Amino acid sequence: MTDHPRPQMSPADHAELALTLEVASTPKPGNVDRHRDHGDLRFEHFLAGAVGSRPGLELAAGDAPLGDAFERSVRGMSRQSGGNTQFGCLLLLVPLVRAAATDRLSPDGLRTVTAATTVDDAAAFYRAFEHVDVAVDDPPDEALDLDVRRGADAVPALRDRGLTLADVMAMSADRDGNAAEWTDGFERVFDAADRVLDDDGPVTDRLARAFLDLLAERPDTLVAIDHGMDRARAVSREADAVRGDLDAAEALADRFLDEGINPGTTADLTAATAFVALERGVPV
C-alpha cells in the first residue's frame, strides 16, 4: 500500500476540532464533558454547536469583518436545542483563527488583530447576544445603555460613543476573563498551550490538566457571576488541590456538578488553548 501525505488542517478545521476536543476532555470539574451532562445541556449539544459554528469560523479565516464572523459563528452554534454552548469559546476563537490565517498567531499578532476591530464589529458582537442567553455581569452605572443583554437595542449608544469591539472588551477586562484575553494578547491562552505541548498522553488528558491549571490560577468569571467572588476563589483553591491528578479531579467534578458550579469561562480558555496547541503541532 502506498503511503499518502496527511492533508494539513486549516485554521477553521482546527477551531472546530478545538471545540470538540474541549468538550471531550474529562474531567473538567463543573463542565459538561463526555462523561457528564448538565440537566438539559448535554454533550451532544456541544458537538452540534461546534459543527454549527463552522461557517462563521470560515469567515474568520477569510477577510470578512471580525464581528460578522463572530455573529455568524454564534448564530450557527445556536442551532441546537441546548441553548448557549460555546459563545465564550467563539469570542476567543474568532480572533485566533484570523491571526492564524494571516500568520500572526502570537500575543503581538493578536494585539494587532484586535486593535483593528471597528464600531461595526462591536455592533455585530451585540447582535450575537440575540441568538442565545449569555450569563454576564451587570455593567457599571455609567454604561447601562451599553448592557450587552440589550442586543441590537444598544447599538445606537455604541455608535454614539464610537466604541470598537476592542474598546468594548477593554471596558470589562477587569471583571471578565475572556475580555482580559482580548486586551492582553491572549497571553494566558498561549502559556497554557505551551504547557499542553510540553505535556504527554492523549490530547484530551492534556486539556483536562490545562483546565485545572487555568482554574487554579485565576477565579472563573462565570462562577463569580453565579455564586460570588468568594466562592469563585474557593473553587480555584479546590482546583489547585488536585492539579495534575485527574483521578482526584473526578471526585471534584462530581461534587461541582451536584453544587451547580460551572467554570464556563475556564472552559472557553481551554478551547482556545486547544486551538493554539493544534496550530503548533500537538498530535491528534
Percentage of residues in strands: under 5%
Counting H and I runs of at least 4 residues, what is the number of helices? 16
Alpha-beta classification: mainly alpha
How would the global form be characterised?
globular
Question: What does this molecule look like?
Answer:
The chain is mainly α. The protein has helices at 11-24, 43-52, 54-61, 66-77, 87-101, 107-115, 119-128, 155-161, 165-172, 177-183, 187-198, 203-217, 221-227, 229-241, 246-259, 264-279. Helix 1 crosses helix 3 (54-61), helix 3 packs parallel to helix 5 (87-101) and helix 12 packs across helix 14 (229-241). The longest helix is centred in the C-terminal third of the chain and has 16 residues, at 264-279. The protein is globular and about 55 Å long. The two termini are 23 Å apart.
Secondary-structure blueprint:
Layout: H1 11-24, H2 43-52, H3 54-61, H4 66-77, H5 87-101, H6 107-115, H7 119-128, H8 155-161, H9 165-172, H10 177-183, H11 187-198, H12 203-217, H13 221-227, H14 229-241, H15 246-259, H16 264-279
Helix pairs in contact: 1-2, 1-3, 1-5, 1-16, 2-4, 3-4, 3-5, 4-5, 4-7, 5-6, 5-16, 7-9, 9-10, 11-12, 11-16, 12-14, 12-16, 13-14
Describe the structure in brief.
The protein has 284 residues and is mostly helical. It has 16 helices and no strands. Helix 3 (54-61) runs antiparallel to helix 4 (66-77), helix 3 packs parallel to helix 5 (87-101) and helix 12 packs across helix 16.
